Amino acid sequence: MVGATLGRPRIGVLSIQGAFAEHARVLERVGADPVDVRAPSDLDGLDAIVLPGGESTTLGLVAEESGLLDALRARLADGLPALGTCAGMIVLARGVTEGAQPLLGGMDIVVRRNAFGRQARSFETLLDVSGVSDAGEGPVDAVFIRAPWIEEWGPGVEILAEHAGHGVAARQGDLLVTAFHPELSGEHRFHEWLVARARSRRERGDERRERHVGAQ
């Protein structure tokens, strides 16, 4: 992946497994510099991060063993914006309905894994997503592959979309999750949202540094 370019936010993509290359391509198209994240040191200097699809238990275990899970948990608590898709939604959750696995717990949701069925029951559909499809560009082309759904959520969570009566997209502050794969259908609006949040975070950091220099 490319290095940082002046004026373009640096957005990490958790690159352990899954569709991280597809996410990187979308990020480049919408004005960010994607950065592979495989170790805690890769988080340095990031303005936001994407947690892609894949196998959520594997993602969590590998990240935990490397120390990346704790480091990322701390960065999220410090306000790092994040987009989690499919397995990334699971890893960002505070809990799952069955079993146990390493989770970041950054978002106040409980997720049911493989809720829509296994690989053979994957599907694609047009989906109305609040704040996205009502902005004038029409519904989202949503690809569901062994997809989870949101079973429970806290008061600070806004459910943005439902399918078959279950939450499949949500936002909590600067955290955004989808049960589907926008990166596989050519959908770019979720990544554009993340880039906007990353730029806002960078601008706030610049303002703090300027105030600090001015006070010296």
Question: How do the helices and strands line up, and which of them pair or pack?
Answer:
Blueprint: E1 10-14, H1 20-29, E2 33-37, E3 48-51, H2 56-66, H3 68-77, E4 82-85, H4 87-92, E5 93-96, E6 107-112, E7 123-127, E8 140-144, E9 149-153, E10 158-163, E11 166-172, E12 175-178, H5 189-215
Parallel strand pairs: 1-2, 1-3, 3-4, 4-12, 5-6
Antiparallel strand pairs: 6-9, 7-8, 10-11, 11-12
Number of domains: 1
Q: What's the order of the H and E elements?
A: EHEEHHEHEEEEEEEEH
Q: Which strand order spans the largest sheet, edge to edge or round the barrel?
A: 2-1-3-4-12-11-10
Question: Please, what is the average pLDDT?
Answer: 89
Number of helices: 5
Q: How does CATH name the architecture?
A: 3-Layer(aba) Sandwich
The largest pleated sheet is described as: 7 strands, mixed
Beta content: 25-35%
Query: Which structural class best describes the helix and strand composition?
Result: alpha/beta
Head-to-tail CA distance between termini: 38 Å
- What's the gyration radius in Å? 17 Å
CATH class: Alpha Beta
| The CATH fourth-level homologous superfamily | Class I glutamine amidotransferase (GATase) domain
- Percent helix, as a range, is 25-40%
Can you put this structure into words, describing what you see?
There is one protein chain. By secondary structure, the protein is an alpha/beta fold. The protein has one domain (10-115, 147-215): Rossmann fold (3-Layer(aba) Sandwich). Helices cover 30% and strands 28% of the residues. The protein is built from 5 helices and 12 strands. Strands 2-1-3-4-12-11-10 form a 7-stranded mixed β-sheet. A 3-stranded mixed β-sheet has the order 5-6-9. The protein has a two-stranded antiparallel ribbon with strand order 7-8. It is globular, with a radius of gyration of 17 Å. The protein starts with 9 loop residues before the first strand and ends with a helix.
